[in-house]
Amino acid sequence: MKTKQNSKKIDILGVNVHPLTKKELLKKIRIFLKDGEQHYIVTTNAEFLVFASHDEKFKKIINLADLSLADGSGPIWASHFLDRPVAIAKTFPPRQQRAYRKRKIRNQLLFTLAINLLHPKFTYSVIPERLSGADVVLDICGILAENDFSLYLLGGDQESSVAAKFELEKIFSDLMISGMKGGFPKESTPDEVLVEAVNKAKPDVLFVALGHPHQEKWIFRNLDKMPSVKLAMGVGGSLDFISGKLKRAPEFMRKINSEWLYRLIQEPHRWKRIKTAVYEFPKLVYREKIFHSENPHRT
Predict the structure, then answer these.
(1) Which phi and psi angles does 68 have, rounded to 5°?
(2) At the N or C end, where does the chain have fewer CB atoms within 10 A?
(3) Residues contacting 123, CB < 8 A, separation 6+
C-alpha cells in the first residue's frame, strides 16, 4: 500500500507515536473521512512497543500508519522518562561519569514509575493525553453516526461481534453498520475471503478485531484492495468491552494507571502479556535511555 507523510511524532524504542489530544484526533478523523484517501490508525501500547522491538515488519507498519495513538500509560510514561535530561558535570573522570549517569537514570526510572501510579498527570509532559482504543472506537462511531458514514466489524468471536453490533446501534441510533464477520479462524482464513466480504458491504470505516500484530498486518496487506474503506483501525479486544463480555476497569483504577491489574484479575491467563507491559517494557526503555545517554550522536 502507498506510504504517507506523518504529522508530528515522537520516538519510543524506534516506534512513532503521535502526541495528540482527543480534540486533535477527532479533527484528523473527520479529515480522513472526507479527503478521498485511505488511512489506517494503530493504537500503540506497551505490548506493541515491545513486540515491535523484535519484529521489524510490525515496527514498519506502525511507523507508516497515518496515526499511532498512545493507548495506555506505557507510551506516556516512556515519553516522559526518555525526555528527562541527564546532566553530568564534565569535570567528572570518565569512569565516574558513566557510573553516575547510570545511577541517575536508574533513580529517574524509579521516580517516574512511582509518579506514574501516584500522580499520573505529571507524566503527560510530552504526550498530552491517553487515547484508549476502546474510547476511540466510540468516538469514531459518533462521527460516523453524525455524518452518514458506514462501519464494518471484522473479527472477534461471533457472540461478541453480534452483541457489540447491537450495543453500538443502541448507543448511536443513526449509526449504519453495513456488515460484520466474526468467529472465523484468523490464522487460516484466506485474506481474499475476508476482503470479498468487506467489499460486498462497501463500508467507509473498517474495525479489525484480530489481536495484534495480526490485525495491523492484515490491514497493511489488504487496505488498498478495499476501495470503499476510507479509514481502518485494529481494535483488539474493544468489541469484548463494548459487548459486555469483559468489563473495563473502574474509573479510579484507570486514573491511577492500574487498568492492567483489573485485566489480570479478570483474565489470569493474560499474565504473560501483563508481564510484557509492566516489566519487559520499562526494562527496554531503561536500556534505551542508557544507550542514548552514552552514545548521544547515534540513532
Answers:
(1) -115, 105
(2) C
(3) 73, 76, 77, 79, 80, 81, 112, 115, 116
Residues 111-130 have a mean pLDDT of: 91
The model's pLDDT over 188-203, given as tens digits with 9 standing for 90+, comes to: 899 999 999 999 999 9
> What does the DSSP 8-state code read for residue 41?
E
In this prediction, residues 219-229 reach a mean pLDDT of 98
- Judge whether 175 and 199 are in contact, CB under 8 Å: no
Q: What is the pLDDT of residue 223?
A: 98
Quote the CA–CA distance of 39 and 61 in Å, as a whole number: 12
pLDDT at 174: 95
The string of pLDDT tens digits covering residues 250-275 is: 676 666 666 666 666 666 666 676 67
Distances (CA, A) of 291 to 85, 123, 281: 14, 22, 15
Phi-psi region of 202 (alpha: psi -120 to 50; beta: other; left: phi over 0): left
Assigned architecture for domain 10-72+130-243? 3-Layer(aba) Sandwich (3.40)
Q: How far apart are CA 148 and CA 143, in angstroms?
A: 9
Look up residue 57 and give its three cell numbers.
515488519
Written as one letter, the residue type at 296 is: P
- In this prediction, residue 242 carries a pLDDT of 86
What are the residue ranges spanned by the domains of the chain?
10-72+130-243, 75-128+249-294
